[in-house]
Structure to design on (139 residues):
């Protein structure tokens, strides 16, 4: 039986204005912006003018929880297709099984791999156009 951690979380992708969007959501809903991390802080080399792009940020107000990121410079963000659903798994076996099933007839945006935040992670678009962020946070 599959044991997910919590609900699916909306994950918004932006083109350089993720932090600005988080600040806007905070001004609208109240709540807290936290865990902001730039690509540079995560160890990526970025061109001039892109050093403040976020690789990850979170917003929470009561039961409302979203995550955001900026795309890599030069990547396209298509408004309307810039939202994915993030799932957190209880085991490496579960994430591997779901990754295999979703990617079999879908498109892999990021292979299942170990990450700098201590998780196993993948990003997959299923055959119906839904984008999934799969995450297993290792102990």
């Amino acid at each position: 039986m599959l044991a997910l951690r919590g609900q699916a979380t909306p994950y918004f992708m932006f083109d350089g204005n993720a932090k600005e969007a988080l600040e806007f959501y905070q001004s609208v809903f109240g709540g807290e912006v936290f865990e902001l991390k730039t690509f540079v802080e995560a160890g990526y080399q970025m061109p001039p003018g892109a050093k403040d792009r976020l690789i990850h940020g979170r917003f929470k107000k009561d039961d409302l929880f979203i995550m955001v990121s900026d795309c890599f410079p030069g990547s396209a963000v298509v408004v309307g297709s810039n939202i994915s659903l993030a799932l957190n798994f209880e085991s490496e076996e579960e994430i591997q099984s779901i990754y295999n099933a979703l990617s079999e007839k879908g498109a892999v945006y990021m292979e299942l791999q170990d990450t700098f935040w201590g998780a196993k992670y993948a990003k997959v678009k299923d055959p119906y156009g839904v984008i999934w962020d799969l995450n297993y946070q290792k102990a």
Remarks:
- The chain has two helices and eight strands.
- Residues 92-104 form the longest helix (13 residues).
- Residues 8 and 61 are 16 Å apart (CA to CA).
